[in-house]
Amino acid sequence: KERADAAEVLAQLALEEGNCGDIVAAGGVTRLGGMLSAATSEERAGAALALAHTAIDDVGRKAVKSLGCVGELARMVRAAGAEERTSAVRVLAALAFDSRSRKEMIQAGAVEAIVALL
Fold first, then answer.
1. pTM score above 0.90
2. Rounded to an integer, what distance in angstroms lies between the CA atom of residue 104 and that of residue 83?
């Protein structure tokens, strides 16, 4: 529960302009990326939401992109519960601004997973 709560705090902090760089500098993006494969759904969903909010900022998006987590996010869209799925889609939406990330999404099967949600 503590890790999920911490991810939620980072998700809220990332909404304020300028905070994404602080989250990146503190190593938050790396830790959040590791939480995408956490044992609990609450942790995975919280981590994905925090990454989605952080990736709205250019600095944050670059850090999230460097995690190489597109495949894991695509898996979450296909197999996760509703909260995880929604958060994973939000991260992918933020990463879609980058052409290299778009290619990774196609290769990881994210397009089919997202279309299936329609």
1. yes
2. 23
What does the block give as tokens for 91?
Answer: 């991260």
Could you give the CA distance from residue 97 to residue 52 in angstroms, rounded to a whole number? 12
Q: Which residues contact 60 (CB under 8 A, 6 or more apart)?
A: 14, 20, 21, 23, 24, 29, 53, 54
Cβ atoms of 61 and 92 closer than 8 Å: no
The two structure tokens encoding residue 47: 């981590």
Reported as type and span, the H/E element at residue 92 is helix 82-95
pLDDT digits over 8-28, tens only?
Answer: 999 999 999 899 999 999 999
Q: Which two tokens stand for residue 16?
A: 């304020």
∠ CA 24-58-63, nearest 5°, is 35
